[in-house]
Amino acid sequence: MISWRKHYKTVLIAVGLLLSTSASVHAQTGDPSNGEKLFKANACNSCHALDKQVVGPALGGIVAKVKTDANVGPDWLHKWIKNNKELRASGDKYANEIFEQFNKTEMPAFANLSDKDIDDILAYTTNPPAAPAADAASADGAGGTDMNSVAALEAAKNNEAASKIIITSLVVIAGLLFWLLLKLRTLVNLQKSQELNAKDSAKAFSFAEFYDKYRMVGTGILSVLALIAFYGVWNWLMWIGVYKGYKPEQPIYFSHRIHAGVNKIDCQLCHSSAKYGKVSEIPSLNVCMNCHKMIPEYKGKYLEPGKDKAFYDGEIQKIYEHVGWDKEKMAYTGKTSPVQWTRIHNMPDFVYFNHAQHVVAGEHAIIDGFNKKHPKKDDQIDVVCKACHGKIDTMNVVQMANDFTMGWCIECHRTTEIDMKNGYNKTYFKNLHEKLKKQFGSGAKITVAAIGGLECGKCHY
Hints:
- GO terms for molecular function: electron transfer activity; heme binding; metal ion binding.
- Keywords: Heme, Iron, Membrane, Metal-binding, Signal, Transmembrane, Transmembrane helix.
- The chain is about 60% helix and about 0% strand.
- The protein is built from 23 helices and two strands.
- A two-stranded antiparallel sheet has the order 1-2.
């Protein structure tokens, strides 16, 4: 009994030390590397950063911060992460203060995370593993360099070949001009002397006699030149208003390759009116802000040749300036300004084109028809938009991928077969197939042209 009392204080001190350090041990026993993976896998980085406030608070050193602010430990963070709504409903004062402080933005519950998972995440926020600068740089560069090296090399070869052709043509033209100058100089020298010696007399001749002798040849050459000139003028007239390959610079740089290609964002998420409306409108900047409220900087690995992270960050900042967004305060300032986009695709006023009719009713027919015309796998499409606009998910700068002429549209209507798997079409065009067989033979197919796709009033009214 005396022995126990002797060591009583020592035992209490040991227990006290164990309890006081349990919170820090609880937070520090996690694996920071695994915590980083969990942090990204659960999209925590979409609302939080370690070094600054995004949608939620900065999480660097969060274990120490909550201890200082409210004298709570990792157990409180476990409850908050698993179900912050339940924690607030229990009347927890600190939980409700945080909820009010961050504009009542409710954090999703992560009941799927185990205690060990949360310990790993907290360990990551306390002691994040440092990524080697060289490795990070090479990783960022890999996405851009590897994906673009082949295309860049091919473009360089094409430019070199084109330059050689131009230089060769200029040399030939210069040679012809030099030869003509020599002949003219000879004729001028002959005209200077009134008396011609025997040698010069042999060179001199009458142009009239020469033309009379070779009149048929001259007429033929002039006719050919006239036909070439006429064809050139006709071809020029036919290409008025055709801007295939047109890709103007925009006031805010937007890479479809990054958004639709690398990040797999569906076309209709931004161009929602293309599916249900006549016109595919340009998305408002509010659509951009749905994501860029939480994405103030570019963290992707893909980089275009000649562009770096700072360039992309600057373009995101332009969005903030136009919509009046303060990324530090996470609030709108009310100062806005419109963006003067340069239009690329523009149908003439006398042409009627309905996006919804093609995107909804003609989706499967257009995709199937396009892929039949392009049997190579690399040329085929998976989204109806690409049939007209090209593989826009590979374009850094959007350009007109097709002619968009009347002949181009008519050719599509003549070759695209109607989707007879569609229940409406199957019933509505039940007897049309038999009629076409009698009119055009057994191989006749129900195309857009067969159901009135070539009628003038369909597009011109």
